[in-house]
Queue: 2 jobs
Job 1
Amino acid sequence: MAVLRGDHVLKRVGNSTIYFQNPPVILSSAAIGGKKEGEGPLGKDFDLIIDDSLYGEKSWEKAECKMLKEAAQLAVNKAGLTLDDIDYFLAGDLLNQIITANFTARDLEIPFIGIYGACSTIMEGTALASILIDGGFAQNVLVATSSHHQTAERQYRAPNEQGVKHKPTAQWTVTAAGAAVISREGNGPCVTHATFGRVIDLGIMAPDDMGAAMAPAAADTIARHLNDTQRTPGDYDLMCSGDLASVGKGIVETLLEQKGINVGNKYTDGGVLIYDLETQNEVMAGGSGCGCIGSLMCGHFMKEMKKGTYQRLLLMGTGALLSPTSSLQGESIPGVAHAITVEMNPGKQGGS
Amino acid sequence: MAVLRGDHVLKRVGNSTIYFQNPPVILSSAAIGGKKEGEGPLGKDFDLIIDDSLYGEKSWEKAECKMLKEAAQLAVNKAGLTLDDIDYFLAGDLLNQIITANFTARDLEIPFIGIYGACSTIMEGTALASILIDGGFAQNVLVATSSHHQTAERQYRAPNEQGVKHKPTAQWTVTAAGAAVISREGNGPCVTHATFGRVIDLGIMAPDDMGAAMAPAAADTIARHLNDTQRTPGDYDLMCSGDLASVGKGIVETLLEQKGINVGNKYTDGGVLIYDLETQNEVMAGGSGCGCIGSLMCGHFMKEMKKGTYQRLLLMGTGALLSPTSSLQGESIPGVAHAITVEMNPGKQGGS
């Protein structure tokens, strides 16, 4: 049901979920992964696997940039468009000052809207792109994100050369990039709803337990989304969070159960999908990083939707909003989670 | 003139400038400044001056957070609203992982959209807020940004205790926060247009010459905006860029002249307005930081518009998209500039 405020009708269901009147189309998408991601159970869903972590560049940061730029260009090519057809480029990443996104934007020469939602970036970007399109401000918007194991490791944790042992709760930053062209018209899965997350902090202090830090925000967003839309987990073929990995995923299930929501087999997480936690056990609890759900949305999930495996998905990005400085200053780690509903052939929305 | 693409009418003039059909209102705003900003020529336009750089906290980072949160809360109070009335909080800052904005969002408990545009953040946020509102997705949106001299100095340059001498081209990071409530209805200056910037890099390498690094992006956005809207500088009471300071401002004037645009006395810059460059000469070329144009927009300019001094302003935020890592790796500094037109009593827009 559309919500009335004053004299106005907002494109909203419930308290805080946006619905799109003419659901924007995910016209094309591209995913690039690293060697370990290529060896994972969804390796075949990447458009390109990069075996060399430096990707022929002089630094891992430059390699990440090259990967993001190639994913972006590939998504545009697959849409049958050129960069001139793209109205806005929305991107962000984990590196300080989102430098990967900035340098990619410099090369693309498209008006650029920089975003930061840590590992929730691809969903924040896709939601904003859909707002730009359904609001009448754009025809085609390019969204992209990336993470790189070595650049994240040395920025957030320790020099890679040090080979620090990780705790069982720790996660492995995914080397991957995802990009998508969101458009006003065309064929493909459509974005029907968006639920932006609140920043929630239950006091987790350990940067090597990020799944636990992000879980309360993930549970809050799922619960708000279901409540707003008056849906149950059964109304979705699958609900997938970003990169909570095995520890965080279990906490989300418990937190939702406490709210009276039984997700059954309708809920999973990108951090447990992207690696085989038994044979690739150096990843500990599973994957993390913007590139985790970023590449899964733009690779695996879009492919499966087009094949008909899924009709309606809730895709959620989950971000741990820490910085090394805040952790050193004794701050706990807040989390945020942004979710979108993606649907095949939804038709015009009027709320319901 | 509205632009046709396919069968659709986009809310756009020219190639890339958005116009708002029902221009969103800047319902209220608040600005907080530090001691030096309070002693500057516009000191009286701040709602609050903080004499102590630690603001009673244990670290400068926590002080910056407190300042941003208070500016945000003050803007909401001045609008006669409560936090419950705000649909979205959009914010960003200069610190790694925009931690100031994240922690403020944690305390506000409003759905949060994190953005990063370096010192262009307040304009990126105000443009996105206006899109959310004119697109029909929100009633009230809170936008905020901040910078703090000591937190920026030690993150980007050197420990404050070291007392490094700055070059004449260097700028002084402003300690200030600005926040604004953008709404669908009410009285106040309205946002009529937004021009998002492209990322432009002419190869400036020196982090102590940021004005020069940002100037090409600023000139590009002004030129595109004027071309899109078929306006001249004479159609504005004033066009103000964010924080180019004296060196960058001169370069913008030269670059615009090369494009055949004579700005005459219609152009100035926040970095030269916020300090008295003669008596406060330790600031070298002038101010910089998200809080510079952030606090000037939310303090000085909103006050002057309400007094009737200005009817139509072009306000632009300018961001230098560097990180200490990218500079160390030999990268040059790209810039970005986002602009909005703010007008008293514009009426309904249909393009023209």
Job 2
Amino acid sequence: HGPPRPEARHHVAVGADTVHWGYLSRSLPPVLHVAPGAEVMIETLTQHASDDCERMIKGDPGAESVFHWTPDLKKVNRRGAGPLDASIFGRGAGEGFGVHILTGPVHIEGAEPGDVLEVQILDIKPRPSANPDHFGRCFASNASTWWGYQYSDFLDKADRREVVTIFEVEPSGDAARALYSYRWVPQIDPSGIRHDTIDYPGIPVDHSSLVKNLDVMRGIKVPLRPHFGCMSVAPRETGLVDSIPPGNFGGNLDNWRAGKGATLYLPVSVPGALFSVGDGHLAQGDGEIDGTALECSMTGTFRFELHKKGSPTKGFLRGLTGPLLETPDEFVLHGFSYPDYLRDLGRDAQAEVYQRSSLNRALRSAFRLTRRFLMDARGLDEDEATTLMSIAVDFGVTQVADGNWGVHATIPKALFR
Amino acid sequence: HGPPRPEARHHVAVGADTVHWGYLSRSLPPVLHVAPGAEVMIETLTQHASDDCERMIKGDPGAESVFHWTPDLKKVNRRGAGPLDASIFGRGAGEGFGVHILTGPVHIEGAEPGDVLEVQILDIKPRPSANPDHFGRCFASNASTWWGYQYSDFLDKADRREVVTIFEVEPSGDAARALYSYRWVPQIDPSGIRHDTIDYPGIPVDHSSLVKNLDVMRGIKVPLRPHFGCMSVAPRETGLVDSIPPGNFGGNLDNWRAGKGATLYLPVSVPGALFSVGDGHLAQGDGEIDGTALECSMTGTFRFELHKKGSPTKGFLRGLTGPLLETPDEFVLHGFSYPDYLRDLGRDAQAEVYQRSSLNRALRSAFRLTRRFLMDARGLDEDEATTLMSIAVDFGVTQVADGNWGVHATIPKALFR
């Protein structure tokens, strides 16, 4: 294909004006309009940058803009899909019903419901610190949180805690090591609200309140798997949608295979598709057991292609109903406890989905999706598809952190060569 | 270490006298006694060889011995842990409560309860056909069965069926292709019992009764992952134990990572450990969705080492309570719905375990095991272990075919370098 035409290259800087925090919506005004074929570099920020403001926010105009929060001014006020007046829990505007800082949306010209948006992930780079004290170094955070799988199952039930660990990327660029950790202690945010747990995103952590453990994970190097946890088109439903549960619109897939060189296909539900991205992860294991990954501000470069309804130029997109990831060697399909939860769980879907998650349901979903893919996209009959699934397709636990638990199916391309 | 001493090499041929079919038991007489350090080549047969007797049994003295079944003589009468008089369902001796042809047991001298048996998998080779018409070629079977995950979920609920597909290994040796398939039709076994479904192992399939589909999986090559589905020490419980549900004694793990170059560690429960092996798989996907893998008679070469209780020479064996697989790059821990199901599910455990399986439970088990491994074997504290699990450990669906459903955790060794 050669290099893209210069006029088709775009750049979206991250800032208070180019992000939406904690929710998706078809009503959001686009930050950019592009034609199919365009290459777009998009900066993103991790919502966990405030775990160590010194290293991950200070001196960075984009991050300082998004995280700006003083008693007088909170630049990005709404964080989450909840009520703006925080009338449910009083946590803050949006109530933290959704946590991810998402850059976008990008409007893709000509995209209509029924089309498929192809998102090629051309590059992913961690965002270096702009603080002169740490200049050029890259940092990340893992938070072992109350919504993690471990939280109900501590060895000592009486000692429930949330733990944040700050990591730095090794000079080699292919691993990270822990710098220090701390237990969460209650924080008073700049608006005066006290947070006994990590119940609202972007709370600036007062490091003078912490006891830091500097002897953490000695000798351990975490291999990197840079990817974006959240890549989404706008859901078809009106209103604001919590950014946490993934679904057929994509969203918070939290699949580490969505790295450089991979391509994500998403069924379009609204005019212009409205693509948003965020939740950068330096690494994650299948399962995302403690509630978060190795969270890191990152910049992605993407190329968008459009497959019009009824005439996909790639046969394997026939019948696509949810997110399909393609890597150089694999197709990866995403099953969920409730693939279309916004429709299927009724009026209270966004609350219900957290109560009803089940790996058993997610596997059933992944099984059916995979059977359908092998039949529609590869022309197998049902018996062939079932047999092939048993002897060559791997089912894994994507995440049990995001309300709508996921099981993915990995189909090797080698089958079809 | 250099090559093993010649006197420490042994060979167990497969035949009616060296197998037990469908069950494990601490009461079985060993077919071989060896000292720790011994290298043993063990032949095994797939219980699915009778799906195509021409290709997988005929002309092979070992297979003909094990599968010999005429109205006058059934050389291996008991198949399964059920009643010998088949008084429950009338399927046949042992009732098919357990299906695997297991070669062994091998008694390891000096092994005692509380020790850990190390099983190094030095080599795995498929067993070539001995029939002159197919001489030297290797065949395998997948059966999409009534106990598979798909059986309750066909696209047309009214068209329930079992489907057998016969495969051949490609000349390259690294892939297999389908030769033909057939729907199961009722078979009358040599004792005169009719089998409407695949409800008893080793039923010789009368190919004149079949409609064969020769146009199956056109263009598809299945990459090989040769491994043994079943590697076990004897459970501590008395009596016969169904070979299907895996547990802390190992058994029917059905993890394809147990291939050449891998090592399996099993906690010893009975004197001599009593190791048995079978259920050869040319390939399997995580999940084993249709009830079986790519089933193939295979010969394995193993080296046994013993780690005495309280003084394991490998630190990562501290606190081992169930099967641990080590590959060149990974440690793999096995969670189950009920890790110690024979004890935990009471008198009817062997029936109950099929009714109660749950991926949610299996993940909980895998989570706890992994936390324990990272703490005991790697010296991490609980918080470090939890964090590491979230950012670097992959949880996958081992199988939903074996009653006691499994979720495994894959821990990269690169973490500790």
